[in-house]
# Entry
Amino acid sequence: MKILVPIKRVVDYNVKVRVRRDGGGVETAGVKMSMNPFDEIAVEEALRLREKGVASEILTVSIGVPQAADTLRTALAMGADRAILVQSEESPEPLAVAKILKILVDREKPDLVILGKQAIDDDMNATGQMLAGLLDWPQATFASRVEKTADGLAVTREIDGGSETLSLALPAIVTADLRLNEPRYAALPNIMKARKKPLETIAAADLGVDLTRRLTILSMAEPPARKAGIKLGSVAELVEKLRNEAKVI
Amino acid sequence: MTALVLLDAEDGTIPQTSRSAIAAATSLGDIDVLVTGGADTIAAAAASAAKIPGIRKVRTASGEAFAHGLAEPLAALLVALAPDYDHIVAAATAIGKSALPRAAALLDVQVIPDVMDIKDSETFVRPIFAGNVLVTLHSSDAKKLLTIRTASFDPVAAEGGTAPIEAVTPPDDQQKSRFVSAEHSSTERPQLEAARVIVSGGRGLQSAEGFKILEPLADRLGAAIGASRVAVDSGFVPNDYQVGQTGKIVAPDLYIACGISGAIQHLAGMKDSKVIVAINKDEEAPIFQVADYGLVGDLFQIVPALTAALG
# Structure
């Protein structure tokens, strides 16, 4: 089985982002960038499927600025076999990303695409579902367990009231939730090896996908900050405040 | 203009989250609702939906394909109904988040997730970067598909309306995915998204056994129980307890955070609560920066004392 894992370069999850003064975006100058954490989980799941003998080849792809090549090198160091960078000036919207991925799927013919369930920058939670729609493939979002079965995949998903298991025919789309696995760190020798693994670069413009944004950003703002309240000395004082000041009990 | 609101009605009832999605859509013109489910639940679900005030009509689709909220048949159904509507709306629940983006791609529309404010029929506000930034977006798509951050909209009433019910014939399901089984966390408590009070626990509870200390307090307050990611990852409680950027987004009147340090990913899910109480032994914990009232100390003493003090 061949697995495709799309990954995204995002502002590191530990960074507290700030809106630029012009309100047109967030400060990224000098900010640490990393692989989207859910995408690390997706890469890890592909690696585990290969270690179980289910997968034979793992291809990773990123769509974005030239520096996204660094993120692809991280996936290669974790163990992916080869990488494709679809270079664009900015990060396209999920619909355009899904259209680009569909072209790569048609070309590479993977049996399974595993994506992170959402990117922690735009929090869209859409690319996997949109790609599944464009390909007319079955989808299992928010996966916490993936198993190969005789006729496809059994995927356990985190849903609002607990969890459920779906059976999917292949080819299929799976999006990774937090508890699918704990991604490995790339060991130093593997980081060295990853430099020699194939990384192909394609210009997004050459794929003929219209990258025009459907959603124009009118403004960005930080939400009103909550004021830190007061520390109290006793439980009795807390009960008194909740009853008589906040009036919530 | 007319909006179609997809309701989460698979169990035969209409949850509060769906009524919040209807509330969000009220500024978008006439509202039809779409109720789906298995043959055994559809009549009850449709009857409940018809009682919601302000609905033009209830449209229903039933059958095995719709019994478990599978995204593929739902998206195909939304696409089939789309020509009648300017906006297609759903609560940002597991079903809405799975089906709407799929339908949007099939309609060549960029879905707009987690909408928390509707400025006009084409302009929407949504959170990004774990809620640390709010972005106002204008959609140039001919049709708009939105999921709604339900904590941002007070639900419409459950009773008072008499909307007509009309069954629709869904497209044939290709059965590429199939429901196998579900494990529902059983609880007598209110749902997290609908609770007026939430008692929530984190790493400080130390174990599944330790977590139980929150139950008497939640019982006393009629509260739902929530958790931080660490508490879920450590196996103290099931995944559906998680509050945060990737869990549930809540905005109760009172949120009591016990042994939760307050990572930004957790704050993203609860910082719109009206009153926040933090109980933590680390007085430097970031949770105190958003808490209205804080108690520094051992939660294994404070929580039982608080339960007792509430009588």
